[in-house]
Amino acid sequence: MKFLIMTNGEYGDPDWYHGQSGQFDRIICVDGGAGRARDLDITPNWVVGDMDSINPADRTYMEQAGVLFKTFPKHKDYTDTQLALTLAAEEGAGKLVVWGGTGSRLDHTLSNICSASLFLERGADVVFDAPAVTIYLIKQRLTLSASVGDTVSLLVLGDRVTGVTLHGFEYPLQEAILEGRWQWAVSNVVTEHNPVVEVTSGYLAVFHYKTPVE
Q1: CATH classification of 138-209 is 2.130.10.10, yes or no?
Q2: Taking the domains of the chain in order of start, what are their residue ranges?
């Protein structure tokens, strides 16, 4: 099943999101992400978190719409997004899309991406999607729907990724080894439509910038 997780991070142009919610089997809002869903006229299946950032009016609206709430104490070991990821795993998510998973809180952004990479061990696809940038978490092969001139960066999740091969980029790689403690595959440029990223072992975060990067 394809799940959408809506967090309370940055979204950008709201028009980009309209009409997309119908492609998901289940939708989980993370606390204040319920307000984002309401703004986009989306009714989720669950709202998850300690409910410290959800607007009271949004909570009432969701309750009246029959949305299920999974409420946790404020003092806890995991972030609200991690709790939403756990719920998605328990419900059998085979593909996971996260909206609003990045933003001004760099610690939350890194936590979200690293935590979501656990889904790769379960064979699930994971994408952080937004109008300006899409982040794919991969462990094998990815064909990007990208335009010539787009910027793509590769970041290692964990200690090491081996067998990294790139086709259709200004800086190609062939069976390269990338180390997590020294990231050097940043700011590559697409030179062919539908470029390919291949990995033999390890996990990569592939950042595809769909708007010009200065």
Answers
A1: no
A2: 2-131, 138-209
pLDDT single digits (tens) 97-154: 999 998 888 998 999 999 999 888 888 889 999 999 999 999 999 999 999 999 999 9
Distance CA 181, CA 102 (A): 22
Residue pLDDT, tens place only, 145-181: 999 999 999 999 999 999 999 999 999 999 999 999 9
Rounded distance between C-alpha atoms, residue 212 and residue 55, angstroms: 35
37-40: long-range contacts, CB 8 A cutoff, minimum separation 24: 37/6, 38/62, 39/14, 40/14
Side chain identity at 162, as an amino acid letter? Answer: T
Distance CA 214, CA 206 (A): 18
Query: What is the third-level CATH fold of 2-131?
Result: Rossmann fold (3.40.50)
**One-character DSSP codes across the chain:** -EEEEE-SS----GGGTTT-GGG-SEEEEETTHHHHHHHTT---SEEEE--SSS-HHHHHHHHHTT-EEEE--SS-SS-HHHHHHHHHHHTT-SEEEEES--SS-HHHHHHHHHHHTHHHHTT-EEEEE-SSEEEEEESSEEE----TT-EEEEEEEEEEEEEEEEESBSS--SSEEEETTB----SEEB-SSS-EEE-SEEEEEEEEE-S---
Nearest to 140 by CA among 153, 124, 152: 124
